[in-house]
Amino acid sequence: MSHQFRCAATALAALAFATTPLAAQETGGTPYAAADPFVGTGGEGHTFPGAVAPFGMVQLSPDTDTGCLIRECYGHAAGYRYDDPTIQGFSMTHFSGAGHSDLGDFLMMPVAGDTVVLEPGDAKQPGSGYRSRFDHASETAQPGYYAVTLADSGVRAEMTAGTRVGVQRYAFPAGKAAHLLLDLRSSLYNYPGKILWSTVRLRPDGTITGMRETRGWAPGRKLYFAIRPSAPLTGHAFLNREEQVPYKGFQGPSRGADDAAQLHGTALVARLDFGVLDRPLEVKVAISSVDEDGAVANLDSEVGGFDTVRTTTRKAWEQALGAVEVDAPAPMRKTFYSALYHTLVAPSVLSDADGRYRGPDDQVHQAKGFTFHSTFSLWDTFRAEHPLLLLVQPEQRNADFVNSLIASQQASPFGILPVWQFQGRETWTMIGYHAVPVIADAYLKGVRGFDPAKALDAMTASARYAPYGGLGDYMKLGYVPIDREPEAASKTVEYAYDDWTIARMARALGKSDVAAEFEKRAGNWRNSFDAKTGFLRARKTDGSFRVPFDPTAINYGSDYTEGNAWQYSWFVPQDQAAMFKLLGGDAAAVKKLDAMFEFDNSKVDYSHAEDIAGLIGQYIHGNEPSHHVAYLYSYAGQPWRTQERLKQIVESQYKPTPDGLSGNDDLGQMSAWLVFTSLGFYPVAPGSNEYVIGRPFVSRAALNLPNGRRFTVVADGLSDANHYVGRVTLNGKPLERSFLRHEELMTGGELRFTMQAIPNKSWGTSQAARPYSMSTAR
Question: Strand 710-716 vs strand 348-349: parallel, antiparallel, or unpaired?
Fold first, then answer.
């Protein structure tokens, strides 16, 4: 999302800046060189370092541990964890920063020598299986490329990926036989019974194909593969390990013939032999949600071997990352471009090269005129990730997202939009119907290429589906009652916000009856706000607030979703002015905001809550309900306090290191927050067509917008000492308000900050200078 404005007064300066690429002025090289996929692979970031194209179907990455129990799997949600000592293999699918574990499909591992062990072994016992030790000094990760030396076998492993293919290249030690192990048992969050069925077969042309169906986070998920090695097979074995026996090295088949052309079962392993090779082995793999033939067609759709695919994907990343040019010191540039990189990994392509894909009804559908995408972590990404993609990706890509959401709703057995979907399957994870603000925000910001009437119908169908998450009671009572539905306080305010975005889109479409219905519902947040305590609270069916009440309490399935009253009491992005009024006015709101950030947590224990990370008092940056809160001082006429809090957050929550994210990246949301905040503004209320101005963290930036225009941000005098905004101009004219309009961004132009060491307590203070609120909208 983003917009811009240009005027004659600054035309010459803007032209001079535009014709001198920032890359030539940068510290730290090109955007591509500055992006580091290792950022977030340690700590609680849950990112992966492997190869992926922008929004690619394939995420080819190492898995360091797949045999974890559910609590242990949280830290291995992306398959790879930076502090692990071994690599089990390389699989084709991964989440980037999710808070739940799944995928890790079709794990492959090169084996050198005469002995091929079929079990992964114990990471604590080197040589006990096919997993291998490795050293970070041998690792390289760039957008679209990953490499590592497997210490135990001496194999140099390289990975690259196109949109629908992954290519592995293995250099085996001289004189040693080359083998490749395909373990169809392996999966992230791999528990007994997860693999419902799998098949593998060798086709006459040497292509290996197969599939598996799993019951993991998403039930009944089917995925197919096609593998084409660059060298002919000298032998193979397809083995079914359902009956485990003592086993050391390859000693013949177990419930499968050594020369079998195909095999099926629930515990399959394939050994592929290539003999002694005189050059590296390249293995090209494609996947499909449809069928084996779809995987083969995807394999053929991207021509060339490893180097060709790597070059094509590198160019795609250079173009994608070049949407924003930034001038900043090397550590900040690395943090910024690593964040921008992570925002461009998902939603991922799911439709095959011929447009077919498997939908939420488990049926095959045909995408017509768009590319179907999946992996929608909407509770997270509606906030800043999708708004950012409106600014840095072509309109067609964003239209594809919307068309994918609508197509999913039409194929849904329940007739509602996705909640948390991946590979076409619904997980029902998290709350709200947050596909709604994604669609509304895109439409209100000018994205076309989808049917808006059909979109509005999908939005209202989701908002009126009574069986979902207490919506029946919400529509009847005006709130979700806690004695009938868990996490009721959070659901009430999130539904109200989503309803407001429906009303906004309905108004834009001239649907006044729909707009009136949902404008009324947008005020339902008031029904769960307790003016006496100043907190959002859960109410029972009889109208009483649930007691006892502890605003610091966090328990899953309780009154709030991954948070407590401190975080959720600020979630009224559509009408912060009205909420501040209920709190007692601007001064009371500021006092409460300060109390949140300065809360003493010494007697509060959150060790039981995985997602609670990055605490600054009761502000929890490692999880999404807090992400807009620092910007709320501007709604009370004190933007200088926002500037203070942003400095505090950026300096404590982000680093250009593997442990550089304080919480799960959540499919790009944590990273999108950093990208927006670095530029100096943030979409507090997607659907308002406004961005709240904070303060920049880079000295210069240029947004190369999807419409071909260019919007620049300049921070004169920016330094660690000069962290306050003294003056703001838009296209050379003073900007006295603390928000930027979408159309101003998209028109192109220059936003210039003059930074200083002391706060400017007169800028952005008037009522007219404050960002959008429903009750005070002009």
Answer: unpaired
